[in-house]
Amino acid sequence: MAPYDIRIIGDPVLRRRAADITDVDATLVRIVDGMVETMYAADGVGLAAPQIGVQKRLFVWDLGDGPRAIVNPQIVESDGEWVYDEGCLSVPGLSWEIVRPKQVHVTGRDLDGNEISVEADEIEARLFQHELDHLDGTLLIERLDSDTRKAALRTLRELGIGSGSPRPPEPAGQAASGGLRLL
Question: Which of 97, 115, 131, 158 is flagged as catalytic?
């Protein structure tokens, strides 16, 4: 069992901007360890702290090179455009084509206080943008055009999703329509 429940759409914690981290201490390292374990248990590739109810600017990810964490991340540059089918465990079982920049340059700090600078493209760039959205209190449905968003909200209501309560992680892997499921 994962150490944390993943919060879903309707939970107010997902709508607030997370606070900057001023001190990396043993408690934060334990949170990161639990986030990584929760991410793996959900078969995800990324997880932002607000998704487990922690209002800190932090996320973890693993695209096959081992788990990493970034503190106080920010996008300092972006370029291009890329449409990709994107899902999220905080909006379970659904995915949509989302337009985002194709490349980003992200900076932040690791858990030792060292500066991180990553030039990312396509999937990695999308993952960083998705997780940063969570840190800013933005869910992927807000990236949809008005008509698609209305239909998405109607579908969520019909499925009974969005009551505001957390749900336990479940295997995710691929989103329902075959796209990458980000956390």
Answer: 131
